[in-house]
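Human:
Take a look at this sequence-structure pair and walk me through the tokens.
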Amino acid sequence: MRNCLGTITIIAWSLSPSLTIACSKHGTNAGGELWLPTNSSGGVVQGFLTLETSLVPPTVPTTCTAGVGLGSLGNLAPNGVTVTGMSIVVFNNSTGASVPLPAFSFLPNSITTTSLMAGSGSSVQSNTNPLFEGSSWFGFSSAVASFLLPVLSPDEMLAFQFAVELPTLQLPLRLEAHYAGGEGQSEGTPIFDGTHPVQYFTVADPSVLVTAPVPEPNTLTLAITIGVILVLRRSSALYKA
């Protein structure tokens, strides 16, 4: 069975050298995740939820499925929260820059979303059901051909990256987040059985604090300066009168 999404950083690989197709095993206690707000306008905040991962590329064409579940039964994701896109990226820890891997072209997929929300329903297959009840799920799928992994610098890592939008009035907001990834059928149905099933995972502290972007110092200084100039001009006009 082919699977294109790799092991989370703290999970050890146990692959036979004879394997020529990609496989993965996601643990339930992954590496760190990071919320990076990028824009706030029109009452909506946009940002990226980034989760470190490792990756084994397929040697034959396959379909990858992945998704994120936000909120829980006791802490529901509010209305207006949505995930508009997903990429696998090379993320630079020093600069915060990210470059998507061109091998993946993830698109929102309603079949993937519905399936990830339900899980396998099995009590035998490990980590094939959502970790939290009541989450709002957002699923994605991508056809993937064989490709070579990029060579990373010491400051770089591979990561899942989800583009999130939510109303500014909801901030600051803390939500539980859990994830799923693995192989799927061509139409986007996750494969929960077999040698390498789609699995669910999260980080040691699964709650994510979602905030708005902090204004750049120069922007803030410019705004204050303009405000002072306007006040001075207004005072001068009153004095001349």
